[in-house]
Structure formats: structure tokens, C-alpha cells
Amino acid sequence: MQIYQNRSLVKDKLKMLPFTLISTICIVCIFGLITLYSATGCKFFLRAHKQILYYITFLPIGILLALVDVRYIYKYSYILYFIVCVVLVMVEIAGYKVMGARRWIGISALRIQPSEVAKISVILMLARYFHDISVYKLKKIQYSIVPLLLIAIPITLVIKQPDLGTGIIILLITASMFFAAGITLWIFIITFIAGIILLPIIWNLLHNYQKKRIKVFLNPELDPLGSGYNIIQSKVAIGSGGLSGKGFAQGTQSHLNFLPEPQTDFIFACLGEEFGFIGGFLLLTLYFIIICYSLVIAINVRNTFSKLVAIGIASMLFWHVFINIAMVTGLLPVVGIPLPLISYGGTIIASTLLGIGLVMNSYVNKDVDIVKSHY
């Protein structure tokens, strides 16, 4: 079997692409560039060419990924997972350290953040595992322990970098896919109880800056010029935007440097200040369309693997958006989670667009049957 058997097959698959989803993604990308310019002003052109390059590189790659026979993705999902785990170990050994965190690996200016790719690999690994396991076995606790042990490896390596935010995202994606796969409720109850019992140990394992962020979340005024500074300025920015905002590139919090690094984790605060509630609502509506479209695709897919892949990607986007916005509005502690396709950064854009490519792949291959690997 060839990945692309003939030209007519490729043309047929191109016609099946969900162009509504692609169009919505393009609108979000344009929104991202506008917000990036608004957040950075004269510094925009230093970053814009890279951001545009990320968009025009990985969106076509995502579309090409949609045309691949889903059975190939299924076949190599475990291999990708193990490769990513090896790369995460390499980050610990030879990774680049930036601002106290060792999260990047690469050569010279070409660097990637493997923890972002880990989210995709975990989704594919879990989708294959649950595809191969019978519904009867899913009700048995011992068959739930295996995937828990498998996801513990990347989560541990990611948190150790330290990158608590991505570790939490992977954990939430796992919980979402467990629920979608039909795992017995007892697993969630036992895991929740175990988490409560282990809270003191988890607290002691956190870095000092992470503990301080949690304390500041409970009381931002505890350290208004230190750990609480970002969240206070973020809420000031969003609150001052009102209904329609101060206007394009008219934000004071970002342009007068009250809001540090407004182009990354706190870019929604900049958007809220300059475009107000209306701008924020418009962006959330676009995200809502993408996530709902992905879930509708999941409902209409025949094989379990593709169904769970689409659900996994939808949950990844949902948790990213939810936590980022809750973070910048003070509803959750600051954990360093970017806003998909809006925040500046190559690896997060790559992982998001490749994830969308997998969702489109599920749609294009919705009638394909995948033979289970019994074990």
C-alpha cells in the first residue's frame, strides 16, 4: 500500500477537506498577526516574518497530513511516542536553558520545544491503545494502569524541565480521552483521591517560583511588584478595555511596558485592552467553532482511533484556551500556557496546526476501517 496510491485518490481527498475548518483557522492566524502587531508595536517586524513563516509552513503540512492514509498514522503512533520520550530525555542532557528552564533542543537558531510535540504523541498513543482494547477490557482497572504508566513518562520529563503548564495540559488531555474512551468512573475517583493524598508531596516537589505563583493567585497583593505583578497588570489591561477597547495599537499596558512579554502568555490581556470585550468574544467564538467542528468530526468517524484523535486534539485546544484565559484574568495561577495560534512561538503553532491536520485526517478517512492489533 502506498501513502498516496494515485493522483485521482489525492484529488478525491482534497475535495473532502473541511474548508470551513481551514478558513476558520486562517482567520485565527490573521487575528494572531494583528494582535501580535498591536502587542509589540515597532518590535513587530522583528517577529512577524518568523510568525508568518510558521503559519505558511505548518498549515500546508497540516493539510498534507490530512491526505495521508490514517492506517499509517495508526501504525507509527507508538513509534512517535517513544521517539518523543527519547528526545525529552535528550533535553535533560543537552537542552538549551532559557530563563531557568531547560525546554529547548536544536542547533544554533533552529530550536524546538519537544514538550509541545509530546502532546500530539500522547494523543496518538492513547488513541491507538483504546482502539485496540475491547470495551469489556476497558471496564477493568488493570487495563487502565498501562496508559497511565505510559503518560507518566512524558509528564514527569516535562515537569522536570520545569514546564508545569504543559504537564498539566497533557494530564487534562489524558483525562478527556479516558472519559471519551469509556473508562470506568472508578478510575477517575481513585485518581482524584490519590491526587488529594499526594498533594503534600506534590507541593514539596514544586519549584519555589511555582509555589509563589500559587500563593500570589490566592492573594495577588501578596507580592504586587514581584510574582503578582503580571496578573495585576493583566487584569488592569483587560478591565480598561471595556466593551470595544482603546483601539488598535493604543494599549498603554503593553506599549508602556507595564505588561511584560505581552506577545506570549499574556497576549489575550493585550487583545482585551485594545479590542475590548467584543474582540475577546470574537476570538473565543472562532475557537468555539474550531473545537465544535472537531467534535462533530469525531462523532461521524467510523473507527475508534480517528474518533479519539479528533477528541484529543479538540480537548488540547480547549484546555489551552481555557487555562490561558483563566490565567490572565486571575481565575487560575500563572503556569505559562500560550494561546494557540495567537501567542508568539514556533513550536506551539506547529503543534496546533499539525493537530488540526490530524482532525482533518480523521474527516477525510472517516469511512476507513482500521484492523485492531490484539494484545
Topology:
Layout: H1 7-16, H2 19-40, H3 44-67, H4 70-75, H5 77-94, E1 96-98, E2 101-107, E3 110-112, H6 114-132, H7 135-138, H8 142-159, H9 164-181, H10 185-197, H11 199-205, H12 208-218, H13 229-241, H14 252-255, H15 267-299, H16 304-328, H17 346-364
Antiparallel strand pairs: 1-2, 2-3
EC number: 2.4.99.28
GO cellular component, one term: cell division site
InterPro entries: FtsW/RodA, RodA/MrdB
The biggest sheet amounts to:
3 strands, antiparallel
**What's the β-strand tally?**
3
Please tally the helical runs, counting DSSP H or I stretches of 4 or more residues: 17
Name the assembly state. Answer: single chain
Rg estimate, integer Å: 21 Å
Integer count of domains? 1
Mean pLDDT: 84
Helix content: over 70%
Percentage beta strand:
under 5%
Shape: globular
| Order of secondary-structure elements | HHHHHEEEHHHHHHHHHHHH
Given helix and strand content, the structural type is mainly alpha
Major sheet: arrangement of strands: 1-2-3
